[in-house]
Write a structure and sequence with these properties.
Blueprint (H helix, E strand, L loop, with lengths): L1 E5 L3 H14 L4 E5 L8 E2 L2 E2 L5 H4 L3 E3 L2 H5 L5 E4 L6 H10 L3 E4 L10 H11 L3 E3 L7 H11 L6 E9 L25 H4 L2 H10 L4 E7 L11 E10 L2 E10 L6 E8 L2 E6 L4 E6 L4 E5 L7 H17 L7 H20 L3 E2 L8
Parallel strand pairs: 1-2, 1-6, 2-5, 6-7, 7-8, 9-12
Antiparallel strand pairs: 3-4, 9-13, 10-11, 10-17, 11-12, 13-14, 14-15, 15-16
Helix pairs in contact: 1-9, 4-5, 8-10
């Protein structure tokens, strides 16, 4: 199988390692590279004395046109957010299946055209929301669908981690998450929780966000965002709270659903799920022994390969990526204007 990589930073190399594990010698790796850094990463850091391009026998292309001329079976788009859509448009025009890292884009420019191309050609398009493959979050989704929570009263999520701790091998000031010109900032970079909100409940009606660049980090994007969302839909009417920051030590990542018949809370760093019934009695708990973070990435790669081989659509397609992007852009608009923003204002056809 011939796979084209557009971006081979941390997440790109994770996908490459997983594809190699799943496909072995069947994998042929091509890459469209601009910076051409050859450091090879492994879980936890740099593999000293290794050479990325040599060790994976990567065929490197200096232009995207040249890379697509090799007729890849799929493209993994793992470059900075602001460059996602131009690369995806070229891949879609060439009829190449697309695995797009989150978020879908940094804004809505070109997304309508990309959506039309993907739909017209029936292309496989997958957005890399790996947390949908976490067993604890899947369990909460099942509980929601089964009506365990009764009437949902609220939901709360928090993600906080110190940005300079992300990749110890590089200057945090040069990372895409630190730079406005690459679509960075905590709202878009930590968009997983917004995707989970859309997956669990559907798109909220409106959002109001407070925060901004509050710390001493040397970045030109927001590092703190606290959002209150108004949900009205099939599950009722309730508030959703989301806090995101680039600052916390130790890091935190939690999600909680509160209903009048039960409560579930997961700590995604400790891998601990606790479920309580209407009387506050612990009725379910799981620490997911044997589970590792990379299991999520492996699961989504397996599913992408299955869809590719069998001509099936992805369960996390372009439209799913668009919903969470709309929510992120509405939060950014609220942060800028200091007012509540309706999600109906933020759409590719708006």
């Amino acid at each position: 199988m011939k796979v084209l990589f557009c971006g081979l930073g941390s997440i790109g190399q994770r996908h490459l390692r997983n594809l190699k594990q799943l496909l072995g010698d069947e994998l042929q790796v091509h890459a469209y590279r601009v910076r051409g850094q050859r450091i090879k990463l492994r879980e936890g850091g740099v593999e000293e004395g290794a050479d990325l391009e040599c060790d994976y026998a990567i065929t490197v292309h200096s232009s995207l046109e040249q890379a697509l001329a090799c007729k890849p079976d799929a493209a993994f788009i793992c470059n900075p957010n602001a460059l996602h859509v131009p690369v995806a448009l070229a891949c879609a025009r060439a009829g190449v299946a697309i695995f797009m890292e989150k978020p879908l884009a940094s804004d809505l420019s070109g997304v309508a055209e990309l959506d039309s191309l993907v739909r017209a050609q029936g292309l496989l398009f997958h957005v890399g929301y790996n947390y949908r493959y976490h067993p604890g979050l899947q369990r909460i989704k099942t509980l929601l669908e089964a009506g365990f929570f009764g009437r949902v009263l609220s939901a709360r999520a928090e993600i906080g981690e110190h940005l300079p701790d992300w990749h110890r091998y590089e200057d945090y000031r040069e990372m895409y998450a630190s730079r406005a010109d690459q679509g960075g900032g905590v709202i878009r970079s930590q968009i997983h929780e917004m995707d989970l909100i859309c997956w669990f409940f559907g798109l909220p009606r409106s959002i109001v966000c407070h925060g901004g660049k509050l710390s001493g980090l040397e970045i030109d994007v927001e590092d703190t965002a606290s959002s209150l969302m108004r949900y009205e839909g099939e599950l009722g009417r309730f508030p959703i709270l989301l806090h995101q920051d680039f600052l916390q030590r130790p890091p935190v990542r939690t999600f909680k659903v509160i209903g009048d018949a039960g409560v579930a809370e997961i700590d995604l760093l400790a891998n601990q799920l606790r479920v309580h019934d209407a009387h506050g009695v612990l009725c379910e708990q799981d620490d997911f022994p044997g589970f590792s973070r990379n299991d999520m990435f492996l699961a989504q790669t397996r599913q992408f390969l299955h869809c590719l081989r069998h001509g099936e659509p992805s369960p996390i397609g372009l439209r799913d990526g668009l919903q969470s992007l709309r929510l992120a852009l509405a939060a950014l608009r609220s942060l800028e204007r200091q007012c509540e923003v309706s999600l109906s204002e933020v759409d590719i056809h708006g």
